[in-house]
């Protein structure tokens, strides 16, 4: 009887941990925006780069600018290290990579976390 109770409890725990909101697994991808220091309007805005993903039929859950986490030289014309980051379905990672986006895990010095409470 104790074994049956343990089995039922185990099943309940595993079922409770299951994601029941039908949201597909996601991944964070990034691409450098190409902005340079001393040129405030340089680079591609998050919203403009988003079109690359949506035009490829990739559903984007949220987006943001972030730092790549690397130390950069302070010099007009030098790269800012700013990346545009997007949360997409993990099933779309290959399509995104073909567009030049990469998994955020490649940015070893960054600590990028997006809070995606609402869709973009």
Descriptive report:
- By secondary structure, this protein is an alpha+beta fold.
- The chain has a single domain, classed as Alpha-Beta Plaits, CATH 3.30.70.
- 27% of the residues lie in helices and 19% in strands.
- The chain has three helices and four strands, in the order αβαββαβ.
- It has helices at residues 2-17, 46-55, 93-98; strands at residues 26-32, 62-67, 82-89, 102-103.
- The protein has a four-stranded antiparallel beta sheet with strand order 2-3-1-4.
- The model is unreliable at 1-23 (pLDDT under 50).
Structure summarized in a few sentences:
The protein has helices at 2-17, 46-55, 93-98; strands at 26-32, 62-67, 82-89, 102-103. The chain is α+β, with helices and mostly antiparallel strands and 120 residues long.
The CATH first-level class comes to Alpha Beta
- N→C terminal distance: 51 Å
The sequence of SSEs as H and E is: HEHEEHE
* Strand arrangement, major sheet: 2-3-1-4
Helix content: 25-40%
Estimated structural class? alpha+beta
Corresponding CATH architecture: 2-Layer Sandwich
**CATH topology, what is it called?**
Alpha-Beta Plaits
